[in-house]
Amino acid sequence: MRPLQSALAVSLLACAWGHGAEEQGGRQAAGALALAATRLADAGDLVQAEVLARRAAGLRPGDPAVLAVLGSVLAGAGRHGDASDALEEAARIDPGNLQLRRSLAASQWQAGRLSAAQSNIEAVLGQSPADRHSLLLAGMIAERQGRFSAAAALLEGSGALAFRSPESALALARSYHGLDRLEDARRALGRMDPSAARPEDLAAAGAAAFEAGDYESAAGLFGAAEDFGHPERGRMLFNAALSCLRLDRVADARSALEALLVSEPRNDEAWNLLGWSLAKAGESDRAVEAFATAIEIAPDNEAHPVDLGSILVSRRETWHLAMEVARHGLEQIPNSHRLHQLMGLAQVRQQHFRDAAGSYGRAVALAPQLPDLHLGLIVALWASGQSEQAIDVALGSVERFPGDASLRHQLGRMYLERSEWGDPGTAEIGAARLREAVSLDPGMADAHYELGNLALRQGDLREALASLERASELAPESAKAHYALARCLRRLGRPEEARRAMQAFRDISDHTEAGRRASASP
Amino acid sequence: MNRGTGRRRLALGCCNRPAFLLACLASVPAPGQQGPAFTDVTERAGIGWTHFNGESEDRHLIETTTGGLGFLDYDGDGLLDLFLVNGGETPRGRSEEPVRHALYRNAGDGRFEEVAGHPPAPGPELFGMGVAAADYDNDGNQDIYVTGYPSSALLRNRGDGRFDSVAELAGVSNLGMWGAGAAWFDYDRDGFLDLFVCNYAEMSFDRPKRCSYAGQPTYCEQKIYRGQVSVLHHNLGDGTFEDVTASAGLAGFSGRALGVATVDLNNDGWTDLYVARDGSPDLLLLNKRDGTLSDVGLEADISYSPDGEALAGMGVDVGDVDGDGWPDFVVTNFHDEYHSLWRHSTGLPFENATHSSGLAGLTRTYVGWGLRLMDFDNDGDLDLMIANGHVNRMIESTRNDVTYEEPLLLLANDGSGKFRDRGREAGPVFQRRQVARGLATADVDNDGDLDAAFMRLGAVPVLLRNEIGQDSNWVGLRLQGTVSNRDAIGARVVLEGNSRTLVRWVQGGGSFLASHDRRIVFGLGAGPVGPALAIEVRWPSGGSQRFESLEPNRYHELVELRPSDLETLR
Fold this sequence. Notes:
The complex is a heterodimer of chains A (522) and B (570). Chain A is mostly helical and 522 residues long.
């Protein structure tokens, strides 16, 4: 039994005996039974304690003190729902008893009856706003409800009490994570003794930290949960490794995964994550081996070839390998739209545009609800010279996904390009689609750039400048945006700014070309 | 300015409607019948030499970028001869026969005869690229510069039909470099032609870069090859040259240069350069008149595409496309990049007229190489002939709209700088597809219109005879410098008359790996020609001369007055 509940029972009983001196027979018997039940519960005999408490309640069914004893015995047995029922009845009979209410709120919190718990603890705080135990409980309830701002304020109001128990300290840390107050969260965790915490609470706090992007805390919490005996050791190691990887602590991630794989050598997810770790460490060959093991263990899991392929497709020299991975994956999972998408992407990279159009076409047929696949198909059709089909598909896709900025952007680009081939009427249609894309996604640098470049071509320097400045702000790594901006500034008679923009353009271009040569075969 | 002497010197042997033309009259359609603009006369001319490019599974990039040719009158008989540059062998691309360049002598009757043993092979180890012909020593004979890898050759014309190979002696062997386009021009106006050589990229036959498509070897993209510095050789006037690349301010321009055209861009009397570079920013080198050249490409907006991409500049040609008296430039590029038209009028930047001229739509699916701004129908407007051909044999399996073999383009200028495809009605040769590279022009039959020839990779080149230009009026000029370089390269020539003013330049370079008939032909249209045709020449030396009352439909030889001649006149 929790000390809080035991103390509540004794104090309520003392109060009941006070009255019992003036009353007769049954009241005294019930009081004796209740006291005996409390003692048995304190001694750990919860079964016998419940028997005596229920007999007491049978003798005095309307006695809130007796009901409170029954409630605390049931709570001690972990039967929070039953405990809450008993305490709710007690509170109904004695609504002004704040101690009883707080006990009820605690029980409801434990039972997951959070709204009722909140209501009862607020009633208590209405009468006793500085009561630190009530503040603590209110904070715990609020944290569980996801009301992180209130939770943090209430738990902070409980002072040092919040750090007396790891459970409440973790609740405070989770609240801070929920509020993106990462430093406060780390400080709260620093004041907590993890060895005193339940591994499950550590894991939950780890999850909150991960969710908040506090991978440093998450790695520590998952590691502690694993150290202190979390029953799902493999999951804790995996989560710790994942957190480390997010921190680019590749060696730590690898050691966690290697430890996991000693005990669970057929854990394909672990092999997958080890593959990512090795890839990040630049050990490409070993990374491929790790992914291959994951694929061998779980050939039906499309994530493994898709992940391996996405690593391979990001590097020029392994584009062809990405295609091979996609091909093998599709032999196992022919209906995977993600693998068809990977195949299409690898084919586009290698300029196998016609094949790419086929791959994206199959992906779209399998998952027509995904706009990214439509976009891939349109790009591949356009690049393969099937411009009419590309525009037809794009028109249909824009109609199907009216809120998708990327599709409108692509359609706009295609119309603009067609205008360059001798169909000037399509320029304005293209510009309209680009403006729609920008209004849907004001952060779309490429659409700003296209609009700026068109305005520059048409001699509208003011319009061009606004769009090109926005494009280069949004995509400072975009060489073309800086180049167009430099041209625009020069025409506007702003040579110094033009020079700076041109320098930015050259720096990026030189870097790109050097990278190309470095990645080429001898 | 030395202007308005009114003195006119005409050619002693102006070549007008030779017997060759009469021999071919049988093939000319009857009046009113629309015939082809050009006919393929290769076989009839007796040209059977085959280009060899050493294509192998190693796919050395040089295999697909070779293919130069040039017209020059090597024996001074007034007929333009044809020099064909061969590629060469590669470690795994061997020829069954010895690889040789070829010099075809124009017999004047429609036939071309290969001149055995001449010029001498520039060297068996030289993989040939392009040619630039000019009289660099002002002795009245056309010399030949052959670019290639890993060196280039200078063949000095002895004047007796034979050549000496003098590159090493002259200091222009370009050792270790991959020479491509080249141009003769007098950058310092000392009266001797200097030599600009486009160098392409670092390469090695021992360490080929490998790329593939669907398991088949393909040429890697050019950008993985490190570009080289192009060089400027100053002609010292004694048969030797000095490398002035650094002192001229050009040492910093590393890049994959392929084509070069010369022209006086800003009309200051000093010749400037446009350098087309493949995947490197094009250069517009302005002659600073102090021995240096300065790149104003960025100011002119020609260095990159509007998207900031360095295009695949292969060939470049210059001419007044829109009739405003200022030189405009056309550059051939890769498919999807469009071949560019840069319109120039007085200042910078240039206007990118690629789209408005129609060129974008007309060239979008082609990989272009050789090109010539030429008034093929003699209507006074510069039209455009472009040789195309892809580099990737597998392209048709990835693109629906691009082919490996591509057509020769003939684009007619409407006079305002807008182009229309004339291929459909211009003859069967424009419906054929081939992998073409260098393109050169010359009036081989001296009938007053420009004929053409182009090289095809690994195949027999094609000689095209212009069948319609001679039906319009024209006036042809052969300029001879005296104070200026003898070829008058760099001269600006203005024709006034027939209600028009036309401007042309005597060029060095132009096109891709090619050399051309340096005579100027002004087209005057089919209508009656006015009585007062006048020509004003500003010579490369800076002096001007006016020639009045030129008779149409014949060539005239215009010779630069020396200061002593002026004294005599006074």
